[in-house]
Amino acid sequence: MAISSIDVRAAHDKLTTGKTVLVDVRAPGEYGSGHAAGAVNVPLGKLERRIGEIPADRPVLVICQSGRRSEIAVATLRSLGRKNVVNVLGGTAAWRQASLPIERTPRSPVMEKIAALFRAKGR
């Protein structure tokens, strides 16, 4: 079965209804640095274990950075029995380029200190 896809503007419009869920399958650090407003983070590698967090009774849009991981996630969700799952074309990169709302997840104080240490060492 072919992967269903939607462009970022149409995805944003669907989210405004309040009936659609947006799942960001990037790693937590990527998600925290900026994600489509309203997206929930379920990393691709944890999708099967966290399937219960993704509603089966509502449309689900899946996003990543560029669209590749979200395609894999859509296929995985379908293999787990989810029917109404759609890939967001171009991912968060396209979302940003379209100037759609982005949210950031603040890091914990401990993570801020670790990040500062890495910046200081030039990593």
How would you name the CATH homologous superfamily? Answer: Rhodanese-like domain
Work out the number of β strands: 7
- Strand content is 15-25%
The number of helices is 5
Q: Please give the radius of gyration in angstroms.
A: 15 Å
Assembly category? single chain
The number of domains is 1
Helical fraction: 25-40%
Q: Low-confidence parts, pLDDT < 50 over ≥5 residues?
A: none
The best one-word shape is globular
The average pLDDT score comes to 90
What is the level-2 CATH architecture name?
A: 3-Layer(aba) Sandwich
Give the CATH level 1 class. Alpha Beta
Strand order of the biggest β-sheet: 1-6-5-2-4
Please state the structural category: alpha/beta
Describe the main β-sheet briefly. Answer: 5 strands, parallel
CATH fold group: Oxidized Rhodanese, domain 1
Order of helices and strands: EHEHEEEHEHEH
